[in-house]
Amino acid sequence: MDIIFSHNAKRIGADVREELPVAADAKPARFHMSTRHFRRRALALVAAGWLGGCISQPAGTDEAPKTLSFEPAAVERGAQLAAIGNCIVCHTAPGGQPYAGGRALKTPFGIIHGTNITPDPETGIGRWSEGAFARAMRQGVDRDGRHLYPAFPYDHYTKLTDEDVRALYAFVMTREPVSAGRPANQLSFPFNIRSLIGLWKRLYFEPGAFVPDSGQNAEWNRGAYLVQGLGHCGACHTPRNVLGAEKNDLYLAGGEAEGWHAPALTGASPAPEPWTTDYLFRYLRGGLTDRHDAPAGPMASVVHNLAAVPEQDVRAIAVYVAAQMDPPTPERRSLRAEAGAPTRTEGGDSTLQAGATIYAGACGACHDNGRIAPYSGDALQLTYSTSVNLPTPSNFIHIVLDGVMPRDGEPGPWMPGFRGALTDGQLAALTLYARSRFGSGPPWRDVEGEVRKARTSGATGGG
Amino acid sequence: MVRLNVNGREHQVDVDPATPLLYVLRDHLQLNGAKYGCGLGQCGACTVLVEGRPIFSCVVPVSVLEGPRIRTLEGLGTIANPGPVQRAFIEEQAAQCGFCIPGMIVRAHALLERNPEPSPAQIREYMRHNLCRCGTHMRIVRAVARAAAAMKTRAAKDASR
Question: Are B61 and A419 an interchain contact pair (Cβ–Cβ within 8 Å)?
Answer without folding.
Answer: no
